[in-house]
């Protein structure tokens, strides 16, 4: 009900009437390493924490887990439910600043639950730029799209942008257990943004 209420209050920032299911969360969080090491994992748009819980289980107390959430109510609820998560009340476009404030040079994994279909072309571009600017060269970015909306203009724009900004984009099998069914993009090896030519 919290998710539905926040959607009704701000449909363009929440983007869905219900949180993602556990089956989708497992696929989206699969790149989070379970072995030794202390990875930096960033979660964008965690909402009520469907992906958060899975990421926390995979990390098992290792590394850093920073959740970037714009919605005040979601951020407060997430901080209470997951005290081991560093919840940043911020816009995903400010991801570089969020990590810099924490003394972190970059991220190993970025998992997104953002409502891309509700974003303007400008917002999509800025968020993807923020992601690729902080992701390590061998890092992984995952995000998802609903199957029924895959051929809409925003979804096609997102797919084109991902293929432009990453050397490898793998589309996983449809997660039929999610409502609605969804598919996950696994993106690796971010491509540096071109440097603007100097003014004549």
Give structural notes:
It is built from 8 helices and 7 strands. Strand 2, helix 5 and strand 3 form a beta-alpha-beta unit.
Key features of this structure:
200 residues; seven-stranded mixed β-sheet; alpha/beta
Helix percent reads 25-40%
Alpha-beta classification:
alpha/beta
**What is the string of helix and strand elements?**
HHHEHEHEHEHEHEE
Outline the low-pLDDT stretches. 1-18
What is the tally of helical segments?
A: 8
| Gyration radius over CA | 16 Å
Strand order of the largest sheet: 3-2-1-4-5-7-6
What is the number of E strands? 7
Tell me the fraction of residues in β-strands, as a range.
15-25%
Mean pLDDT: 88
C-alpha end-to-end distance: 56 Å
* Net shape: globular
Oligomer: single chain
Largest sheet: 7 strands, mixed
Outline the secondary-structure elements:
Blueprint: H1 2-9, H2 11-14, H3 22-28, E1 40-44, H4 50-59, E2 64-69, H5 72-81, E3 86-89, H6 95-101, E4 107-112, H7 121-134, E5 135-146, H8 153-165, E6 166-171, E7 182-190
Parallel strand pairs: 1-2, 1-4, 2-3, 4-5
Antiparallel strand pairs: 5-7, 6-7
